[in-house]
Fold these 2 entries.
Entry 1:
Amino acid sequence: MKEHTIRPELREWILSTVRSGYGPGDVLRLMKDAGYKEDQSRHILARVLNMPMTTLSTNIKESGKTYRTRHPEAPRQVVDGHTVRVGLSTERPVIRLLEDLLTGEECDALIGEASPRLQRSLTVDVDGKHQTDERRTSQGMFFRIGETPLVQRIEQRIAHLLDIPVSHGEGLQILHYLPGQEYEPHFDWFDPTQPGFGAVTARGGQRIASVVMYLNTPEAGGGTGFPAIGLTVTAQRGSAVYFAYDTGDQASLHAGLPVVKGEKWIATKWLRERPYQA
């Protein structure tokens, strides 16, 4: 098929539309409404997002309904008989402090199940592959979705609390930090301008929210910082910080602050706009 010249304004429109939270299928439908032919639209979108045509086609066919999470409101939410207190709320960015999301017994059990499988923590690179990153100095591991009865129970609780299917979550990640270890400021959403954006979002779309659960209380340090708004959430055993974001949301910049004394254990759940395929 003949290569189409992509006008700069069309390229910028595609990127800004994706940054706003629209999936490739939504962009294709908008381009069709604007008069573009389907094959032409697919080739243009694949080139702008650096996505293989086969990946794009599968992504569009299977994308289905896209979801956003429901933000828990104060003072408390009851999920299947479990009471979660909402101790802090902000709207820009959307942040909720979820107190008592986990019981002490659940925290200890997660640490026990994860400990034998810890390895140097990885990040996702621009091609969607896992790599070591000097900004992240912890050890960690991933559970598969529903891998154990405990993991399944926690995943169901989060799904009911945020009104999003379990299938939209990535596997639960457990991280262990020692004194001096941290995760420097970063975003959890994937940057549409990076070459591997198409590959990393083909398995479930963009990330839309994060839940960071504290499995212990460090003696000092180890909180989660949001530098754009000057907020630090203290790491307290059993509590969690939930934050939702749109693609390109600069206010969602956050960091796992250095552990000053003691150790820190956390469990992280990332949520996607569509069902996630590990």
Entry 2:
Amino acid sequence: MKRGVLLIDRGSREKEVKEELDFICKKVKEKGNYVFSNYCFLEVIPPFIEEGVKKCLQHEIESLTIVPYFLYPGKKVKAAVNDAIKLQSLTKVKFVISKPMSMHKTMSELVENRVKSALEKNTISLPSNQIDVMIIGHGSKDPNAQRSIQYVVDNLTNTYRNISHCFLEIEDPNIQQGIEKCQKNNPEVLVIVFYFLHKGAHVKRDIYEDLNPAIEKSNLKKVLITEHIGTDEKMIDLILERAREVEHAN
């Protein structure tokens, strides 16, 4: 069957986001043997979902796999799915819609990859059980979002000396509270993981507005900050796994 795949992202004005999505779509097409792979945005800037789907339908395909490229289930994902489903009436091409990128072991592996990379980059050879980790997520009013990040923390509890999480906005613990909690454990090394898909405004600027002052006020010995998690090869594989789940079911 001739298949195409469309990633629905939240949307950002940062040029790095489009560059990352271009890279991801190229890799997904190659590794998944799709006729094409493309992306669109739920909000902020075009191409929006309707434009993205219509562009897909210009290709000779029998099925379109739509992947909500979000870290958390919630209102944004539901809105993206609903907008896409409405367009099924425009075509005989069959739409199948995958789960988002949450509640999967790969997310824990991505965090581990980022921690290892940060340690290697800084030539720190301490074993994992002597490393403290704090994950910074975006924050959401949807309880499923907190469950998703807690899932990652729980999976890695036995890997590191301590692991915790905090949020950039909307919910607690905030970044200041997160740093204060880590400080109480007196870590030799604290690795901070940016749990974001893209190098957007949050990763480039917003987090640092809270994180830098919090670190300066603390007495932490050594703090390392990782890259965001979106452009890892494991993320490509997870997108393909999510896609195949629904493709094989239909």
